[in-house]
Every structure is written in structure tokens, then in C-alpha cells.
Amino acid sequence: MPPQRKFVLSLGASLGCAAMIAALTGIAQQSAPDALAGFNTPSFNSAASVSNGADEPSGDTFALDQQIFERNHQEKSDDPTQTGLGPVYNGTACVTCHENPNTGGASQITELRVGHSDPVTGNFVNPTIYVAGSKTPITGRSIVNDRATCPEAQEHVPDTENIRTLRAALNTLGDGFVEAIDDQTLKDIAENQPGQSNGKIHGEYIEVAISETSGFKRVGRFGWKDQHGSLLSFAADAYLNEMGVTNRFHPVDATSVCKKTTDPEDVSDSLGMADIDHFAQFIRATQVPPQDLALAGTPSAQHGQALFRRLGCSICHVGSIKTGAPDSSPNGDAYKIPAAIGGKIIHPYSDFLLHDIGTGDGIVQTPGLQETANKLRTAPLWGLRTKSRFMHDLKSLSLDQAIARHRVEASEPAEHFAELPAADKQDLLNFLNSL
What we know:
By secondary structure, this protein is of the alpha+beta class. The chain contains 13 helices and 14 strands. The protein has helices spanning 3-15, 17-25, 62-70, 94-97, 175-179, 183-196, 231-243, 275-284, 293-296, 299-310, 399-404, 411-419, 422-432; strands spanning 88-89, 110-117, 124-125, 129-131, 136-138, 143-144, 147-148, 163-168, 207-209, 217-219, 321-322, 345-346, 354-355, 376-377. The strands form six sheets. Strands 2, 3, 6 and 8 form a four-stranded antiparallel sheet that branches. Helix 7 packs across helix 8. The longest helix is centred in the middle third of the chain and has 14 residues, at 183-196. It is globular, with a radius of gyration of 22 Å.
């Protein structure tokens, strides 16, 4: 038997029949319809956009939600619909970072995060960034904004902050279905992984506070560190930290240097919805990224998908997950899953758990969870073919390079891929390029 084929048989034997079946089929076993899929939010053409059918709040429309997601914020304006900008920020609109291949997708944009280790405990510590001629500190957050509304507010990384990383802007299309995944489903995936990998793979789930429901926590699933468990929490954080737009959950800017607006800047409109509410509603109503079915149906891609499973890639990049039941309330009483989202099968190729695959950035974003410093959320692979750079820092310029960077928990699948004959490697890459 050729040596490069032996690992397939040995992997099957080591996983055991039950675990192997789970790895091959994904977590969703129940019969349910697939979520609607499509790149159906053409940028700045909301009239042509098509939602997943989720109910809108009274008076609201999917087109309006998209327009607000695309709206360009300004530093100061007489227009009462404008919410302000800065003083420190990365982009002037949500769509600045989420537009490929259309509104809500990922992009080539990265954000900068830094910090340092405590010399005594070794724990991660957020940076202190001085602005206004080293007179005013910005503290309590790892993000460093690349832009400012005046030179005095511009952030610069001091030499003391020697933990530094870039983070890619994430796709948000289909994240309404991700929000609707029941906590127990993600916990079950995590608990099954050691048995599927001889103890080598062990995703971590963390429970995080939900901004819209006081005292309520659920399993995190948004952001590179799973620091958010709801889309409204994610939106509120992004408005403050990416655009400098204060809101009801984050009512104070990172700095008052050069500030010209009154807080909170994001207030309710005539529908009783703030921008962050429209953001969450827009994402909840988007369809999931579609697969290229023509390529996926080729013998090469189908063989590549089988290899993807046999190598163990699908233990973390889970191919099928079922969302929670319609009318259930995943975020406390603040939101009920609509029929268009609940009870659907999605194919994200992610477990939405934290893993150490050797590319950890050393940053801790959820207080008290120092063990997450070198872990990152499994990147969902749906929509992968729309990207030209890969991994959390976008430093991998090919899928081969991205796979080769997988180490620690993911070392065996990466090594097995390296051992494949060239034709098999291409088949697996063809499958990935169909996503």
C-alpha cells in the first residue's frame, strides 16, 4: 500500500465507527430544509436585494436595513440622521469592512490589536495608548484605530505593547442563522471532538454577556475570539470600536479628544430603531453564502470533499449544523427566532469554537479567560472562494499556505494534506474553491 494512503485507513481506525460517521456527516442528523443561500445583497442597490424571508419590525424593510448598513457616517453634520464619527475609528460605514462580494460579506480590511504580558503573572494586559501629545490615555481595549478625526487623536502603538496582530474583517452574511444555533449544539460539538481525534482536538466554548438582556449569558460565536453571542451585541461593539459611534450599550467614546458630538450618537428613528438595531436586523435577514454547485458537482470536488472529511478537517470545519427551533428565544426575551431562520440546516464549515492551531495572537478579549490568548474561532469556510487572502491575519496568499499553517490541534490534518499525491491535493483544493 502506498505510504500516502495509509493515513486514511489509520485515521478511520483511530476515530472509531461512530465518530467517523459523525465526522463524515456533520452534527445535523435531523431532517430539515436547508437555509436559503445566495449572494443577494448587491452593494448600494438595496432595491435589488433579496432577504431570507425573516419578518421585519413594523414599518421596517430589508432595503432600509441595508441602506443604514451602507450609510456613511460623518464627523459632524446638521443632518439629524447622521450619528457622528470618531474621534478614533477604522471605517466610516459598516460596508467599509463588509462588502465582498456584496454588502455584508468579508473584505481585505484588517484591524490592529495590541497589548503586553504582565511581567509577574504572564497574563495579557490591554495597552495604554496616549494621544493629544502624550497627555490623554486610551485604555481598556486591545484595538488600535487606524484613523482619527484630528491629528491630536491619532493612536500610535508604543514600544511597550509588544503583542501585536492583524485581524481580518469577517463575513456577516448568514450570521442570523449562526445566532440561532442553540448553545447545546455548540457544546455537544466541543464535547465530541476529543473522541473524534484521540484527544488532539478540543474546541472551547465560552459564555459571554448579551448586551440586550441584563444578566443573561450564552455561548459566544461572533468575532475572532467568540467575544459576542448576539448580533445586537456585535453591532453595538462595532459601532463604537470600528466607527466611534456611541450607542445605548456603549455610550462613551474611547477618547474625548476632538469630540464634537453629544452621546449617545446612535439614537432611535421614527420606527423606534437605532442604527445598531437595523444592523442586526439586516444581518438576521441575509441569506447564507452559497456554494458553487457546478464546481461542487464535479468528480474532482466530490473526491476532494471526501478527502476533507477523511483527513479530519471536518471535525472543526463542521459541514452541517441545524439552527434552533422557530419562536425560541436564544438571547433571553429580547429576540425570537423567526420561521425563516429556525429549524434550518446550514453549511458553514465551522464549529464556531475556539482552538489553538499555532496561529494564536496572544490577545484576550473576554475578561478572565486568559486561556483564550492563543486561541481563535474556527473560520467558517462558506464564501471562501470570494477571498484572495486567508487566515485571521490574511498573511496566507494561497489555500496551500493556509493549510500548512495549521499546527497544534490541527497538526495531523495538515500533515496528512502534505502527504497527499498532487492530484488528491488539487481535488481537495477544488472542493474548497467551491465554497
